[in-house]
UniProtKB/TrEMBL annotation:
GO terms for cellular component: plasma membrane. HAMAP family: UPF0161_YidD. Keywords: Cell membrane, Membrane. It comes from the Bacteria. Belongs to the UPF0161 family. Could be involved in insertion of integral membrane proteins into the membrane. This is Putative membrane protein insertion efficiency factor. InterPro entries: Membr_insert_effic_factor_YidD. It comes from Shinella fusca. Transmembrane segments: none annotated.
Amino acid sequence: MCNAPDCNHPPERLRYRGRNWNGPFRKTPGRLFGMGFIRLYQLTLSGFIGNSCRHLPTCSEYGYEAVARHGLWRGGFMALFRFARCGPGGTHGFDPVPEALEPRLAWWAPWRLWRVSKAERGC
């Protein structure tokens, strides 16, 4: 960290940012449970079975953000489907979590979340 008077680093660049999404979200019990479960995986098992994700952000980071933004039900299904797409013969590349979901992606039809990807969002 630079404390010299001639240091021109913006203060937001000097703050620590974790690897998980830290934006605003509603702190409901389901979201906190899902995010805690994913964080537990990251701290314990990820070092042994991880390091093979073909996407950016990684599948666990994607799941953490999806649950935080869209809740345990939709975010959990988005994370599950992303994990399935990450396997052999699956997709790869930059695939962020959408900020908002389309109205056709109703909570009672989680199978429609399978194709929530960069190709469908027009990126």
